[in-house]
Design brief:
globular, nine-stranded mixed beta sheet, 26% strand, 23% helix
Length: 213
């Protein structure tokens, strides 16, 4: 199974506005490119915060006949309202992966909206998530979560490719997250090499592809 991350960031490396959300900073070209990445994937990992804060449209719009990847939603605690776009617009019933601690709450809210899989722990282990997806036969998985979710998969050395869109804005505020945001530096981060395998400029944006060496 191949796992890729897709993120957009500003010239100063921020992936959220000062209010913690991301909106209005990407162009039609970036949205088109996002649909290209999604059309090449059979599963799409999303985090709870991304769905609640941004309520993303997960349906591929640029290619009318494309088969949409199956949404896989990771919920460490609490639940998600069942009226979000991800439950309304997908070609597949979403797969929600939660923990034993919030299984009851998830079932109450989403039992008729999603397939629910509870891990036998109180946390979301990225290695267990990738194991579940491998067993279900998914080959190309795209991660569109937030910085903390990205960090957990990168820290476990589970990511094969990173797509980055560089957008022409500078926010400047300190403390805002980059593409990965964790409590500590990743062990051996300077030994984990990434190769720039593609770079395309469109308008004022640059689309970068890095593959794990």
């Amino acid at each position: 199974m191949k796992l890729s991350i897709n993120m957009a960031m500003t010239l100063d490396g921020k992936v959220v506005r000062p209010d913690g959300k991301w909106y209005g900073l990407t162009s039609k070209e970036d949205k088109l490119q996002m649909d290209v990445y999604r059309s090449q994937s059979d599963a799409l990992i999303l985090g709870k915060n991304s769905i609640i804060n941004d309520n993303p449209v997960v349906k591929i719009r640029a290619f009318p006949n494309a088969l949409n990847p199956r949404p896989v939603i990771l919920v460490r605690n609490g639940t998600i309202p069942g009226d979000k776009h991800v439950f309304e617009e997908s070609d597949h019933i979403p797969l929600v992966i939660c923990t034993k601690n919030n299984l009851k709450e998830i079932k109450t809210d989403l039992e008729n909206r999603a397939e629910i899989f509870a891990l036998d722990s109180g946390d979301i282990d990225p290695k267990k998530v990738t194991g579940i997806l491998k067993r279900k036969g998914y080959k190309n998985v795209l991660l569109e979560g937030g910085p903390k979710l990205n960090y957990s998969f990168l820290d476990g050395d589970l990511v094969d490719r990173i797509y980055i869109t560089l957008v022409p804005f500078v926010i400047g505020k300190n403390g805002l997250a980059g593409i990965a945001d964790g409590a500590s530096a990743m062990l051996g981060f300077d030994e984990r090499e990434w190769a720039l395998t593609n770079s395309v400029a469109k308008g004022n944006e640059i689309f970068l592809t890095y593959d794990r060496k």
